Every structure is written in structure tokens, then in C-alpha cells.
Amino acid sequence: MQKFVFYSVVLLVLSFSISACGNKKQKNDETGFEVTGEEVEIHNTPEQKGVVTDYEKLFSESETEILAQKCNSFFGKNAIPVAVMTNPGFGDYKSFTEFADAVSSKWQICNNDEGILFVISNNLGEIRMISCPKTESRISDEDFDYVINSVVYDAFRQSRFAEGIMNAIDYLDKKIKR
Fold it and tell me: What is the pLDDT of residue 44?
């Protein structure tokens, strides 16, 4: 029963999880925090270690490799970079959303205003999917919502994190406007 309540709360949080990013400064409506280069330098924002950066150790070595291949393949096919980051907390930021926005900014996810970043914390029961302006014009809000609330959620509640992200990328690849 406790797991059911936890995942119900996660689903509620996920339904409000999709954020937008840009390569200039970003304003997080949740906290009023503006993510700027200066703010990213002041706070402790993790370094990117590759297309998949798994600080929380949610993926096996082989899952990390397959997931990285899937992200690179999506980029090759659609010219949209995809990255995945896991972290057990949000450090010295005020919220997980603020943290996810800062990671997106520091990692410069929005390459020519195209890009998708999944920021995951199993420890906190949080996920954010950051999408950039041009990407949002190619993938509908309804598709992003479906990815988070169905595709990812269904796999994550069974602790199949890599599968959830891979299924999300596959779904987005089918729905993207070319």
C-alpha cells in the first residue's frame, strides 16, 4: 500500500513535470528562480559525463551503453540531442525543477534550440523532461504528457528505468514532425 501511495504521488508530480528550456536565461515559474550562467556557477551543478550521466546508479553498465546508443541514434535521425541524467537529490537548489533547469543550462542541452533532457531522481520520486523551443514545435504537449504519465511512469513504478527512457525515446521518434 505504501508503494501505491508513493507512486500515486509520483504520478501527480509527473503530470506537472514538463519544462521548457532555452539557450538564454530561463525563468522557473515554480520558484521565480532565473537560471543564468552566473547562477549555475554559484550552485553545485553536476558535470555531464556523457549522453547518459547516471549519478544515482539506476542503470547497469549494459543499459547505459544501450541507452546512449538510443540517444545518439535519435539525434542522428532527428537532429535533436537527447541526454539522460540521474541524481539522488537536487543539491543546494530550492527545488528539483530548479535543479533540472540548471542542469539543462550548464550542459547546454538546447543545441540550436533543439534538445531533450530527462532528469531523474528515484530517491526523490521525481522526473523532469526538459525540451527546447524548436523541439516543442516538433513534438506536441500531448505527446510529452503521454511519455511522462504513461510510458515512463509505467516502467519506473516497476524500477525499469532504462526501459522507460528507451520506450519514451521510441515513442517520441514515432510522433516527431519531420
Answer: 85
